[in-house]
Design goal:
heterodimer; A: SH3 type barrels; Elongation Factor Tu (Ef-tu), domain 3; 5-stranded parallel beta sheet; globular; B: 2 domains; 7-stranded mixed beta sheet; 14 helices; 12 strands
């Protein structure tokens, strides 16, 4: 079976490629070049940098598979980066990784793979895809390593995408992946992993957005009663739940609790004001194609590192759902994903909408 | 089966070259600058190679300076002239030069030289009036390649050199893609400096030369010992240079016959593709062109995908300039010719060489038809 592996140069996708090759598959490594790598360009990126591309090439040579670098600069810019910029400009907190997976790896890359006669695209995600024997539908499940689970970033995948997806390390824990890497003699066995947004390695997303042309329009910071208590240099510099960099003096710690891009206002409040018992998510994708009925019990994750919270589905209209948490949750940030689980199975997810 | 149609990137060394390089590597370890027996042996090898390389281009052996390859030769020509041209600090190069020339020109531009790019017409040829229009009395050097690496077009160097000389400028030509493929004679071309690279005509990598017309003043860019008549410091790469000499001798001996054979093969490939694959067109002038090269655009097919798909079928081609870690910038050559962006991104180069056969050409035409059809059907499906 011919399988294209998306090789980032990291240990997870390297092991994924090596395991598939060892199983005797016809494996082709593709690495995506996502941004300009010319000398003299400001270095941005902690993943898919030129060094990572070299690492991927060395791993491919080591395990004896063909490897190619495909240039997706334009697609990355048009889908992932432009969305990132627009979302911040609209006062939301985007998750570029979801778009990179759904709109690039499992879209553009899958199309490329198909052109090369491949049946599957494999990645190094900690997630599992299984076929439900009863319904014949594909299920997305969390990776067995709970600490590494990346199913949150894959909730937009549809049945057609899952039908051609493979996650070879999803059944392993990270320690086992590293052990495999060492046994296979992969040079990347001890490579550290990136945590940041890959194209904002210094974590300064405000500076990145300004380089991309975000307007630094000054506006008011208000408290939850609407009083102006400070000034800000542009709503793109803020995210719900943020505490640092507000430039306010207050006897109690203040957090960003709301961002209104149209009014160019940032609202701050005490920690308690961050808590919310309900959320609305729009653009919801139900992976198995069936929405749970109102009243259904599930767990909801509202950001990557969030510990899922038990909740009840309270309503559904088209692709918009309402969910009530058993316990209030802190910093429900518009633009982040709400992903719903039933045990290990990802039911689906959507984008957290602004409270009206 | 593996078929190699990328000879403009590099060529397999001829068996005679492999013998020469390995035997010299084993036997002639001496430093050619040494006075003793071992040094003299190495020096004799260099002298022999120098004569052979000079013979390929109708030059005097003393006019040949060995370099590490074509890129160093191009750097040497541009930087060496810029260094001695006080007062005349204007440099010209065509828009379709190799990066070795274009990026060196850019670097010199950052160091105070004035630089101008000469446009090409839509067939990839530098028109004499285009050169005349940008020459000035301050122009120190005009650099125009003899044959282009991506499309194979051959420039009217002799005529361009006359125009440049009339304004007092010196002329450099990068003959890396023409030497060994078509006759290259420095007197007929009428230039002052000419770059060569061994591995483009079945020689080893790591050896090249700059031909410097007797009496031409230019500064060394590698300074150190008194190697190469004080013009290029560094212990000579004797085995590679010996292989360069043998490759030059072989190329000269079979220039006419191999040229005709390759032209027939290339034309068969071109005609086969144009007839079998709809939506194809040859980029650049079909004549004058080096006999081994064709550059073809495939409407609606991304060159990157086509290249990978062909490689998986065992067929090695290229998208023009080989730069895997480069940028999405379309080929500067096709762009300079004014091709629309989509066409610059769906073009591939095929370059033939010694060892390619009619059967291979027919196989590639067949595979191309299949692969292109498949890629197009996916594009149409909206993916």
């Amino acid at each position: 079976m011919r399988i294209v592996v998306a090789m980032s140069g990291g240990v997870d996708s390297s092991v994924a490629a090596a395991l598939l090759a060892r199983q005797g598959h016809d494996v082709i490594g593709l690495s995506m070049q996502l941004y300009d790598q010319r000398e003299g360009q400001p270095r941005f990126g902690t993943c898919c940098t030129i060094d990572d591309l070299h690492d991927a090439r060395r791993v491919a040579a080591h395990i004896g598979i063909p490897h190619y670098i495909v240039n997706f600069e334009r697609q990355f810019s048009e889908t992932v980066i432009s969305n990132f910029v627009e979302e911040y400009a609209a006062g939301r907190t985007p998750i570029p990784c979801v778009h990179c997976n759904g709109d690039l790896k499992f879209a553009t890359l899958v199309a490329r793979a198909e052109g090369l006669g491949a049946d599957f695209v494999a990645t190094g995600h900690y997630a599992r895809v299984e076929r439900d024997g009863a319904t014949g539908r594909y299920l997305l499940k969390r990776g067995v390593d709970a600490a590494k689970d990346q199913s949150y970033f894959l909730f937009t995948l549809d049945q057609a995408q899952l039908a051609h997806a493979m996650f070879p390390v999803g059944t392993l824990d990270k320690a086992a992946v590293r052990r495999h890497a060492r046994e296979l003699g992969l040079q990347v066995a001890e490579k550290h992993e990136s945590q940041e947004i890959c194209f904002v390695p210094d974590g300064d997303h405000a500076a990145f957005l300004e380089r991309q042309g975000a307007a630094a329009a000054a506006g008011a910071i208000r408290d939850i009663d609407g009083r102006v208590i400070g000034r800000h240099d542009g709503v793109h510099r803020f995210t719900v739940g943020q505490r640092k960099g507000l430039g306010l003096s207050s006897p109690i710690p203040l957090y960003v609790v709301g961002i209104d891009a149209v009014a160019n206002t940032v609202t701050v409040g005490p920690r308690a004001a961050l808590e919310q018992s309900e959320l609305t998510a729009s653009g919801v994708n139900w992976i198995a194609g069936v929405a749970p009925a109102p009243g259904a019990r599930l767990t909801a994750r509202i950001r990557h590192r969030h510990r899922e919270a038990p909740a009840t589905m309270t309503g559904i209209e088209g692709d918009t759902v309402h969910v009530r948490f058993d316990e209030p949750q802190s910093a429900v940030a518009p633009g982040q994903a709400a992903v719903f689980y039933d045990g290990d199975v990802v039911l689906g997810g959507g984008w957290i909408a602004k409270e009206i | 089966m593996r078929i190699y149609f990328d000879h403009n990137a590099t060529t397999p060394p001829a068996p005679e070259v492999i013998d020469e390089v390995t035997s010299r590597l084993a036997a002639e370890f001496g430093n050619a600058s040494s006075i003793h027996y071992f040094g003299q042996r190495a020096k004799a090898v260099l002298d022999e190679a120098r004569s052979q390389v000079a013979g390929l281009i109708g030059a005097e052996p003393s006019e040949i300076v060995f370099t590490s390859g074509g890129t160093e030769a191009d750097n040497f020509a541009l930087r060496g002239i810029a260094d001695v041209s006080a007062g005349r600090l204007h440099l010209l190069a065509s828009a379709i030069e190799h990066e070795a020339v274009l990026n060196t020109l850019k670097a010199l531009g950052r160091h105070g030289c004035r630089t101008t790019i000469i446009p090409v017409d839509q067939t990839g040829i530098v028109r004499p009036d285009a050169l005349a229009a940008v020459l000035t009395d301050e122009t120190a050097l005009v650099s125009i390649m003899h044959a282009n690496n991506e499309i194979g077009t051959v420039q009217p160097i002799a005529e361009l050199a006359r125009i440049a000389h009339a304004r007092g400028a010196l002329v450099h030509t990068d003959a890396v893609q023409s030497a060994g493929k078509i006759p290259v004679d420095v007197k007929t071309l009428g230039v002052d400096l000419l770059s060569l690279s061994a591995h483009k005509f079945n020689g080893p990598k790591g050896a090249g030369a700059l031909w410097i017309k007797r009496g031409t003043r230019l500064a060394a860019i590698l300074t150190g010992g008194k190697h190469e008549r004080n013009r290029r410091a560094g212990t000579e790469n004797v085995p590679a240079i010996a292989g360069f000499g043998v490759a030059a001798r072989l190329a000269r001996a079979k220039l006419a016959s191999e040229g005709a054979r390759l032209a027939a093969l290339r034309n068969r490939l071109e005609e086969g593709i144009l007839a079998r694959v709809p939506g194809t067109a040859v980029n650049g002038a079909r004549e004058p062109r080096v006999p081994n090269t064709t550059n073809i655009s495939f409407e609606g097919v991304e060159a990157e995908s086509l290249l990978i798909a062909l490689d998986l079928e065992g067929v090695a081609v290229s998208t023009g300039s080989a730069c895997s870690s480069g940028t999405l910038e379309p080929s500067h050559v096709l762009r300079a010719m004014g091709l629309p962006t989509h066409r610059t991104q769906n073009s591939i180069r095929m370059s033939l060489g010694f060892g390619n056969t009619e059967a291979e050409v027919d196989y590639v035409v067949e595979r191309l038809a299949g692969v292109v059809g498949k890629l197009r059907s996916l594009t149409r499906a909206g993916r």
